[in-house]
UniProtKB/TrEMBL annotation:
InterPro entries: Delta_60_rpt (IPR013431). The keyword Signal applies. Coiled coil: none annotated. The keyword Chaperone does not apply. It comes from the Bacteria. This is PKD domain containing protein.
Length: 422
């Protein structure tokens, strides 16, 4: 087991250090090397449910999901924490931070003055009505009443902060009475809807239009969204759309792909689950579920697409699992990390029921691929598969992982772990 990076963490919950500062940029982090396959020992454990989201604010990791209890790294002390908690990035100490949220938290984003934005399926925060999105203080867990966007219904599945803007994605169709289907941009301090920003997403024939996930490039100029939609305005955009957001609005670009038009298993209104920009914004990687039915479709795969040119796009490469879902992706430069409940990588000829095909390599639950070729790297820490990895978060010191199982890197790690840089 890897030695602790610092002295043994204290086991009592402590308050978050009081810090101030401007709005975090939220930029992706480049790594010089692939992370270690041996996770650190000091991270705490979530004892039930699923971790859906992770964020870092200063030296604090915020964890969101659907759970009730957490413990310190030694598992000697247990704390009641419903759907959200926080711990020290460098020592794993569980913070006193414990806001009351009555539903699952699917997304998190760092806020100004040591706060965090939370998004999910909740309707109240600390007993006060606040549906789907809120801002809370990491010092005392208090809700900021000045940030008060009102969702008409639905949930929030993605949050990204860039400067004084907060991007919000999910299943809603209006905020503060302003029609915005699945994607909106808000003032990060007040929650007021940006009137000039409207992606005009629509899903004719679909039960519900929604944004499943999205990302904003490091420079803040491009936004890529995936989900259950077929159009942006009058333009065809099946499950994926790229916008120029460097100006006052959401300008649909000429970039598009028809790669996700073929249907996967019946019942998937969208089979795309996550999308991330590379640190330099030159390409994206999409993770997908969908129950693979042929090697020609992009179900149960990860695919890279270039973003620097307009017009029709084909994937640069496709990593196929042979029938197992991928839910999470992180891109650091030397590696593209993929998580789900997959058993194999490099498996275009395998099937879910018949085992691996020629050339397949074992990568249970987590793995990494070469960003240029999409082929599996040697990095193979393993994890107990469960439903799958739901969240990656790249930090300057490593890679945080959130999931629904308690084995990571051949060690006990309850639903949270961190692989440090070598």
């Amino acid at each position: 087991m890897r030695r602790r990076l610092l002295a043994a963490a204290a086991v009592a919950a402590v308050a978050v250090p009081a810090t101030t500062g401007a709005m975090p940029a939220g930029a992706d982090t480049y790594h010089p090397t692939v992370v270690s396959a041996d996770p650190v020992d000091f991270t705490p454990h979530v004892l039930d449910g699923t971790v859906w989201s992770l964020a870092v604010v200063g030296d604090t990791v915020v964890v969101g999901g659907a759970f009730n209890k957490v413990s310190d790294s030694s598992r000697r002390f247990t704390f009641e924490r419903k759907n959200i908690f926080a711990f020290g990035l460098h020592d794993g100490v569980i913070r006193a931070f414990a806001p009351e949220v009555d539903g699952a938290i699917y997304s998190l984003a760092p806020g100004p003055d040591h706060s965090v934005y939370i998004g999910g399926a909740f309707k109240t925060v600390n007993g006060q009505g606040q549906r789907a999105v809120a801002r809370v203080s990491l010092r005392d867990g208090g809700r900021y009443p000045s940030f008060n966007p009102r969702m008409n219904w639905g949930d929030v599945r993605g949050l990204v902060t860039r400067g004084e803007r907060l991007y919000v994605g999910g299943t809603f169709s209006a905020i503060n009475g302003v029609p915005r289907v699945g994607l909106a941009r808000l003032n990060a301090y007040t929650g007021v809807v940006d009137q000039g920003f409207d992606a005009r997403l629509a899903g004719p024939g679909l039960k519900r239009t929604r944004v499943e996930h999205f990302d904003v490039s490091t420079d803040g100029r491009k936004l890529i969204a995936v989900g259950a939609f077929l159009k942006s305005g009058t333009a065809d955009r099946t499950q994926i759309a790229l916008f120029d957001v460097g100006g006052p609005g959401a300008a649909l670009t000429g970039w598009y792909t028809d790669a996700f038009k073929p249907a996967c298993m019946k019942g998937f209104d969208t089979y795309l689950r996550q999308v991330k920009f590379s640190p330099d914004g030159s390409y994206i990687v999409v993770a997908a579920t969908g129950r693979a039915s042929s090697a020609q479709k992009l179900c149960d795969s990860a695919a890279r697409f270039e973003t620097r040119t307009a017009g029709p796009q084909n994937p640069t490469w496709v990593q196929r699992t042979g029938g197992d879902s991928l839910y999470a992706v992180a891109i650091t430069g030397p590696a593209v990390y993929l998580g789900g409940h997959q058993r194999w990588f490099d498996n275009p000829y395998g099937t879910d029921g018949n085992g691996p095909g020629p050339g397949a390599v074992s990568r249970p639950g987590i793995g990494a691929v070469n960003p240029n070729t999409g082929k599996a790297l040697e990095w193979n820490p393993t994890r107990s598969r469960g439903v799958g990895v739901r969240a990656f978060l790249v930090t300057e010191g490593g890679l945080l992982v959130g999931s629904d199982t308690d084995q990571l890197g051949r060690e006990y790690h309850g639903r949270i772990g961190m692989f440090p840089l070598r």
